[in-house]
Amino acid sequence: MSDDQLLRVKDVAAIMQCCQRQIWRLVELGKLPGPFRPSPRMPRWRRIDIEKYIESLAKKN
After folding, report:
1. What is the dihedral of CA 51, 6, 43, 57, to 10 degrees?
2. How does strand 6-7 pair with strand 45-46?
3. 1 in any annotated domain
């Protein structure tokens, strides 16, 4: 898959194996990079940002 692929919250939750609400909690806490919004009701994350976040978690452990 391409690094510049855009992911919906549903996709991010599936990658991180958690619920969608947990994704929004992590964003609110500043732990997960927030999405950008190509339109007001269309939050999207770049796959590379999510992969970097997961790698940072692995390095902490």
Report:
1. 0
2. antiparallel
3. no
Q: How many domains does the chain have?
A: 1
CA distance linking residue 35 with residue 51, whole number of Å: 14
Stretch 28-49: mean pLDDT, rounded?
A: 95
| pLDDT at residue number 59 | 87
| 19-34 tens-digit pLDDT | 999 999 999 999 999 9
Alpha carbon of 37 to those of 8, 12, 44, 59: distances in Å?
11, 15, 6, 29
E strands present in the chain: 6-7, 45-46
Q: Specify the residue for token string 């190509």.
A: 38
- Inform me whether the pLDDT recorded for 61 exceeds 90: no
